[in-house]
Specification:
8-stranded mixed β-sheet, 11 helices, globular, binds NADP nicotinamide-adenine-dinucleotide phosphate
Length: 328
């Protein structure tokens, strides 16, 4: 089965041209901006696309909050970013995004401790190939890729709204093109568990959440994107066959980060409507031609309602959210 999925993903990957080709139409001055005075939160920034994004933003003078689950890996990334960028404004926050209750605690504390946040980049993602649960009893892929993103974003929206030119970028995946939103089995309790398909479903859910948030929060510019297939630890570990099949065509992490950075910093981004799906600095359809993957308004409403119920069920009481998180 995973071989068939690898072939399917390979064919989807081929639908898009490579980075070199796409980048011929990029406008170089789009990224020619100073980010001094702007703050960015990037999840999963100790590795791959997240680290490349943090590095690019730090080099332009932005204040960077890197949210990582492992303190040592985060510290190594921070040192690397500071040394290459000369920018000391890089702060570590240790958080496992699969632990929904902790996401609430972190986001509530961050909101109390910071007077502004200009850009949230939901980059961290995982593909756990067995059905594993977090300490709240929630399936881990869903908890990390969907519910963690939901809670973090929902909680930080009031802070973003107070800040200048606020944006939220969520790193989804072209893999979501093979999935229609499934509202009935959010945690894969009934269907056979296939990590690649669960991941693709979560990435579809990120697209749907972004569309809903964009309509509900007009002060903030939301986008969701596919970074292109990049050679990162996540791909090598979670999809070894796909990694092997694509190895000569994979992008570098910097190339994968290009559109994330562009969406986060360039003025050109906000000329596009909020809520779109991007690839290579262009809005593209979130559905394949003639696809069955569109969801009805009712399905979207049911989905968002279920997320809210699950999120609120593990929301800690106010007193617990006062505690500070590691921040260096
Ligand atoms: N590379 C591609 O071809 C590709 C294609 C489509 C979409 N994407 C998406 O791009 C994003 C970045 O992935 P990547 O390819 O750059 O892989 P990566 O280098 O492995 O980075 C993934 C990051 O997410 C972090 N992470 C995973 N689970 C977490 C959790 N529970 N709590 C906190 N952090 C967590 C990882 O932390 P650890 O280092 O501690 O594991 C790591 O920092 C992901 O959302 C992925 O789905 C990548």
């Amino acid at each position: 089965m995973s071989f068939v999925i690898s072939v399917l993903l390979f064919l989807i990957a081929m639908r898009w041209s490579g980075f070199e080709n796409a980048s011929k139409s990029f406008v170089a001055k789009d990224l020619d901006v100073s980010l001094v005075g702007r703050s960015f939160m990037i999840t999963g920034a100790n590795s791959g696309i997240g680290k490349a994004t943090a590095m690019a933003i730090a080099k332009k003078g932005g204040t960077v909050h890197i949210v990582c689950r492992n303190k040592e890996r985060a510290e190594r990334a921070r040192e690397e970013i500071i040394s290459a960028s000369g920018n000391n404004e890089v702060y570590i926050h240790v958080l496992d995004l699969s632990e929904t209750r902790k996401v609430w605690e972190f986001a509530e504390a961050f909101k109390k401790e910071h007077s502004s946040l200009n850009v949230l980049i939901n980059n961290a993602g995982c593909m756990v190939n067995q059905r594993e649960m977090n300490s709240d009893g929630l399936e881990k892929n869903f908890a990390t890729n969907t519910l963690g993103v939901y809670v973090l974003t929902k909680c930080l929206i009031p802070l973003l709204e107070k800040s200048r030119d606020p944006r939220v970028i969520t790193v989804s995946s072209g893999g979501m093109l093979v999935q229609k939103l499934n509202t009935d089995d959010l945690q894969t309790e009934r269907a056979p568990f296939d990590g690649t398909m669960v991941y693709a479903q979560n990435k579809r859910q990120q697209v749907v959440m972004t569309e809903v948030w964009a309509k509900a929060n007009p002060k903030i510019h939301f986008s969701v994107m596919h970074p292109g297939w990049a050679d990162t630890p996540a791909v090598a570990k979670a999809m070894p066959q796909f990694h092997q099949m694509m190895r000569n065509r994979l992008r570098s992490a910097d190339q994968g980060a290009d559109t994330v950075v562009w969406l986060a910093v360039s003025r050109a981004t906000t000329a596009f409507p909020s809520g779109l799906f991007f690839q290579d600095r262009q809005p593209v359809s979130a559905h394949l031609p003639l696809a069955w993957t569109h969801s009805s308004r009712r399905e979207v409403k049911v989905f968002m309602g279920r997320l809210e119920t699950l999120a609120m069920a593990v929301k800690p009481s106010d007193s617990l959210t006062q505690r500070s998180f590691d921040c260096h």
